[in-house]
Design goal:
This protein is of the alpha+beta class. The chain has one domain: Alpha-D-Glucose-1,6-Bisphosphate, Chain A, domain 4. The chain is built from two helices and six strands; from the N terminus they run ββββββαα. A six-stranded antiparallel beta sheet has the order 1-2-3-4-5-6, with no helix packed on it. Strand 2 and strand 3 form a beta hairpin. The two termini are 23 Å apart.
Length: 117
C-alpha cells in the first residue's frame, strides 16, 4: 500500500499555502508546507516547498518548484522543474527518499487518472 497525502489546508492563490502530510501505510506522517508564488491559469504555477513539523515550522531549506502545462498531440504535458539552493541540499533530498517518493506520486496520479476515464 502506498503512502497517501492528507491536506490540512490549501489556499491555491498567489501567496496562499498548502499544509499537508505524506502518510505511510503504518501511519507515520511527514509534513510539508507549500507556498504558491505565481499562478498563470491553465499554463503554469510556481511554489516554494519545505518539509515541516506538525506545527508548520519548516525543517530544511526548501526548494522552488515550477509546473508548466502544455498541449502535445491532444494530451496535456506537465513539465516540472525543481530548483535547490545547493548540491548538498539536492543530495540530502535524495538521501531522504525523494526519488522513490516522487515516482510513487506519479504512479498514484497515473492510477487516479486511469480510474477517471
Amino acid at each position: 500500500k502506498p503512502w497517501t497525502s492528507r491536506t490540512k489546508f490549501m489556499d491555491f492563490r498567489v501567496g496562499g499555502r498548502r499544509f499537508y502530510a505524506m502518510v505511510s501505510p503504518e501511519g507515520h506522517e511527514r509534513w510539508a508546507i507549500q507556498k504558491y508564488t505565481s499562478i498563470s491559469p491553465k499554463t503554469n504555477f510556481k511554489m516554494f516547498n519545505a518539509f515541516a513539523d506538525k506545527d508548520e515550522n519548516p525543517e530544511l531549506p526548501g526548494s522552488e518548484w515550477d509546473y508548466t502545462f502544455s498541449q502535445e498531440n491532444e494530451k496535456t504535458k506537465v513539465s516540472i522543474t525543481i530548483y535547490n539552493e545547493s548540491l548538498a541540499r539536492l543530495e540530502k533530498m535524495i538521501e531522504m527518499g525523494f526519488t522513490e517518493g516522487f515516482k510513487m506520486s506519479m504512479l498514484n496520479l497515473e492510477n487516479l487518472l486511469a480510474s477517471n476515464k
